[in-house]
Amino acid sequence: MNNKINNKIKWGKSIHSIVIFAFVAVVGFALAACEEIVDPAEQTYTVTYSGNTNTGGTAPVDSNSPYQGTSRVTVLGNTGNLVKTGYTFTNWNTQAGGGGTPYNPGDGFDITANVTLYAQWAESPKFTLAYNANSGSGSAPVDSNSPYFSGTLVTVMQKGDLNRNGYYFNGWNTLANGTGTSYAEGATFTIAANTVLYAQWATNLTVTYNVNGGSGTAPVDSNSPYKSGESVTVMDKGSLTRNNYYFTGWNTVGNGSGTAYAEGATFTITASTTLYAQWANNHTVSYIGNGHTSANSTVPTDTVTYAKGASVTTKEKGTLLKRGYDFTNWNTKQDGTGSTIAAGADFTITENITLYAQWELSTMPTGDLAAKLQWLTNNALQGTEYLVEVSKNETIGPYSFDYLNNNTNVKITLRGVGSMREIALNATTGNLFTVASGITLILENNITLTGRYDTQRSLINVNGGTLIMNEGTILKSNGQTYSNSSYGGGVLVQNNGNFTMEGGTITDCLNDSGGGVAVRNNGTFTMNGGTINNCKAFWGGAIRVDAGTFNFNNGQINNNSTVIYTSQISEGGGAVYLGNSSAIFIMEGGTISNNTSHNFGGGVQANSGTFNMRGGVISGNTASEGGGIYVRSATLNKTGGTLYGSGEGENSNTATSVYNSSLSPYYQLPKGNAAMTWDNDKHRNITHGPTSTPRLFMQGGTTEGWDN
User: Fold this and answer.
1) Alpha-carbon distance 321 to 362, whole Å?
2) d(CA 414, CA 426)
3) What is the pTM of this model?
4) Could you tell me which residues are beta bridge partners of residue 218?
5) What is the DSSP secondary structure assignment for residue 40, as one 8-state letter?
6) Inter-CA distances, 640 with 248, 324, 361, 529, 581, Å
7) What count of Cα atoms within 13 Å lies in the side-chain half-sphere of residue 277?
């Protein structure tokens, strides 16, 4: 029993052991099987390219190799420029002999194993290369390498002994007429078809020279003929000359209208060319005054003609002048921005040249007054002011401030420097100064003008111009009295002239009419200050007005008188005489005093014209008739001012004789102030004359010491 049990136990253990062994074996086999099965996606593979008997170039290299299994591969082209003599690359194949899978560049496949791609080759065709003389003489070259496999790089041969009379070899062309593809000797090209190269011929190009009116032998170009496109160097003129001309260069047309070339220039020749000598007249030098004053002024001239490169000496200015300016030099441009050449200087001429006079503003000289006045005569410019300073006493002849066409708005100021300076007249004829229309003369300060007692001319003749006399100036000692109707011992204002007296003194001057000042022919005298005294005349000891105007605003007219000669008794107007129906005297201020007439009007004789008294004082004057005012055929309008009668002591105007007349005068009674009787009382301040019909209009002002 126990044995059975034990046997059962032993058998059971055996069975158990067998089962365990079997399980272990199965598991082991399974594990072994697992180790041999691999996933392709987990492997890497290479792609290699082979030239497969190539004779040149290199096999491509795939930069993406190796690839992960099952990756997509793109087949490369012949990127290494593989070649095989006599063959043409066609594609790739997985077998060298082409029995595998073919691939063209750019094809793709999924890689599952290492791959080698072999270049596949197809035998190339062969092409011939021949040369044709194309009308040339000699033997056309023969290419010993012909025929060539298609795609072979061919070198073009030299022309050898080929030539053609009158032509030069100009390369090869695939067409006889040159319209195909051109090749130069030694050029290369890849042959792809049977080819014939034809010699190309171009006409020889000549360069000739023509004297074109010159004398001597034209140059000959030893390099001629030329090929088209070659560079030509233009020759020198050599011995060529032409009388009175100089050589300027060459030109492709005789008249110079073509292309110009200088000696030594270069050009590219494309056709046979004739170059004509070009000639220009010898150079001239012209001079321009450049604004010069034409009167008495001549521009220099140069009649010589100069060859190019000759030395020229510039002209001096000669008589060339420009008013108000000094000549400095010559310049090749009008505005002075060119080349400056001094007068008398040398320069080398290379072309026709024009030289323009250059000018700078002239400066008044220092020294004598006469020199300064002469400078003004030559240089005064319209619209310009000048200061003339007098630094010493001088004696000069008559001078006219008259600059003809340059008179417009010229102002000249005369001034003494340091102290009072005297300018004396040295001639019996002519005025010391004449002031023409358009000129203003200002006597500014420290100036004394002294005349002569043996002249009948005024010291200053304001003949259409303007005279201004300021404080610190004196006009004196001029004139004489005769019965020849001379005017203005000191100043004659005429022909629309203007004299303004702001100050200063006119004294000790004599004349027939207006010892101090005479106004005629629409002249105007305005007295704003100053003094006129100790002057004498037949008519108007101080002032005579004929056909003009005297405006008296301020100042003193005193101690003047009329004169008597045995042959003539003075007419009158110890201070002022109005002698023309167009005479106008307007008195706004000032004083007329202590003047004497030996006949009529100790202060004023209004012989004719108009006297408007609006202000001022008339006092202390003496006459035979009309101590203050004598009115004959004139009009007196008194609207202001003071007129003294005979009872005012030293202010009295006094009549010293009785005027008897059978005429009945016309008069108007005064309008304002005391009444006045118009009669012949010798003490009356105003006396009317014996002729015509004097008119008195009293509308204001003051009458002192009148007898009523």
Assistant:
1) 11
2) 19
3) 0.59
4) none
5) G
6) 91, 51, 54, 19, 23
7) 24
List alpha helices for 518-611, DSSP H.
none
Q: How far is residue 305's CA from residue 619's CA, in Å, rounded to a whole number? A: 84
Helix, strand or coil, per DSSP, at residue 501: strand
Q: DSSP labels for 349-409?
A: --S-EEEEEEEEE--PPSS-HHHHHHHHHHH--TT-EEEEEE-S-EEE--EEE--GGG-TT
Architecture of the CATH domain 42-123: Sandwich (2.60)
Write the DSSP assignment of 458-469 as a string of letters.
-SEEEEBSEEEE
- The residues near 35 (Cβ < 8 Å, ≥ 6 apart) are none
For the record, the structure tokens of 48 come out as: 């290699």
pLDDT in tens, 204-235: 999 999 999 999 999 999 999 998 899 999 99
pLDDT of residue 309: 87
Residue 14's pLDDT band (cuts 50, 70, 90): very low
Cβ atoms 86, 149 nearer than 8 A: yes
Residue with tokens 């150079």, as numbered in its chain: 283
Q: Positive or negative, the Cα torsion across 223, 227, 232, 234? A: positive
CA dihedral 322, 325, 327, 330 (to 10 degrees): -80
Neighbouring-strand partners of residue 519? 493, 545
Of 541, 545, 472, which Cα lies nearest the Cα of 510? 541
- CA-based diameter of the chain, in Å? 225
CA–CA dist 515, 80 (Å, integer): 129
Closest CA to 170 of 146, 143, 135: 135
Cross-strand bridge partners of residue 205: 226
Range with the poorest average pLDDT among 116-125, 203-212, 656-665: 656-665
Q: How far is residue 244's CA from residue 277's CA, in Å, rounded to a whole number? A: 15
Quote the CA–CA distance of 388 and 393 in Å, as a whole number. 14
Give burial (CB, 10 Å; 0-12/13-18/19+) of 215. Answer: exposed
User: How big is the CA angle at 581 (ends 578 and 584), to the nearest 5 degrees?
Assistant: 55
- Cβ-based neighbours of 409, under 8 Å, separated by 6 or more: 382, 383, 438, 440
- The answer to whether residues 131 and 64 touch, using CB atoms and an 8 Å cutoff, is no
374 DSSP β-pair partners: none
More confident residue, 27 or 177: 177
Round to whole Å and give the CA distance between 199 and 177.
10
Between strands 536-539 and 505-513, the pairing is parallel
